[in-house]
Amino acid sequence: MIGFQPRPTVFRPGGALEAEKHAPGAEFFFLTFPVHPLRAFWQGTMKRLLAVFYCMSFLGITQAEPTAALPLWPDGAPGALGTGTNDVPTLTPFLAEPASATGAAIVICPGGGYGGLAGHEGADYALFLNRAGISCFVLKYRLGSHGYRHPAMMNDVNRAIRVVRARAIEWRIDPARVGVMGSSAGGHLASTAVTHYDTGKPDAADPMERLSSRPDLGILCYPVITMGHFTHNGSKQNLLGPSPAPELVWELSNELQVTPKTPPCFIWHTQEDTAVPVENALMFASALQKARVPCDLHIYEKGRHGIGLATRPPEFDSPHPWAADLIYWLRHRGFAK
């Protein structure tokens, strides 16, 4: 578990206050004194209750549950092909516990080749980041498998960022600390959000459209970045169609769209990834470096494509090393505790 050192208190009858080490990183304090047998019974009962409470907290059972999914456009999304579930992009809030919340938020874009949405790259990430005090919002964006093409997906992620900012007071969010995160094709969508944003339209009839869609940081997990030589062809076809114009290929090759105003990014990939070449991450990091945009790049030897955290809630036991590296970076950025 990242960033937590368990230090349970245990009571033992008969003696004095002392401390002893039982395992690295776990310190146990023993308060000892003579007691009446009835008091000893109650102390034993309380000890068991405290142990249960401790285990529930440590295992994440007390994590915040997600609230109901919210449509990004209550009156229907622009360009919608219908009114069914597949035509309604939504945002599902996973709010951090108030006692530990940092006020930061991250919009999460699951991967799936622009043809599906991988749950372990959505809700699992949200629950994991909740433990670091970050409120998360999992985006269900429109997909190529349901007949949609660019710019529907880009419009959905930009709108999601505006929605979080618009409801910042209600959700106790700092509107200046709203990031975006994505994996695989969701990583492409997140990289689109950090390169194809706008600062808001002051004269828009919809008040939400007057807010900026620029994320304050980006987190890209084994991302698709380019629509060129090293692309993932399935993602490209679902996003742009079978025969996209060269101008569209250039526009959505996000390594070519980085500017000095692109927000800081955390990027990770693995050499073992055979679905999305690691060159995608390298190209985007190189573009950020040339534009003098802060970035944290991690290339790991091991890890298949789509690995996610390599662990599941609620325990999140032994996650892939990128998880600890991300929390370290988010602390430095003022997002995580």
Written description of the protein model:
The structure is a single chain. With 337 residues, this protein is an alpha/beta fold. It folds into 2 domains: 9-58, no CATH class; 70-332, Rossmann fold (3-Layer(aba) Sandwich), CATH 3.40.50. It has helices at residues 37-58, 123-130, 152-166, 168-171, 185-195, 233-240, 246-251, 279-290, 322-332; strands spanning 9-13, 18-23, 26-33, 70-71, 90-94, 105-109, 135-140, 178-183, 218-221, 265-270, 295-300. The strands form 2 sheets. Strands 4-5-7-6-8-9-10-11 form an 8-stranded mixed sheet, with helices on both faces. It starts with 8 loop residues before the first strand and ends in a 5-residue tail after the last helix.
What level of helicity do the residues show?
25-40%
CATH H-level superfamily title of the largest domain: Alpha/Beta hydrolase fold, catalytic domain
**Average pLDDT, to the nearest integer?**
86
CA gyration radius, whole angstroms:
23 Å
Question: Total number of helical segments?
Answer: 9
Major sheet: 8 strands, mixed
**Order of helix and strand elements from N to C terminus:** EEEHEEEHEHHEHEHHEHEH
Q: Remind me, CATH topology of the largest domain?
A: Rossmann fold
Poorly predicted sequence stretches spanning 5 or more consecutive residues:
1-43, 45-63
Number of domains: 2
Percentage of residues in DSSP E strands: 15-25%
Supply the CATH architecture of the largest domain: 3-Layer(aba) Sandwich
- Secondary structure class reads alpha/beta
CATH class descriptor of the largest domain: Alpha Beta
Q: Could you tell me the number of beta strands? A: 11
Taking the alpha carbons of the first and last residues, their distance comes to 14 Å
Shape: globular
Major sheet strand order:
4-5-7-6-8-9-10-11
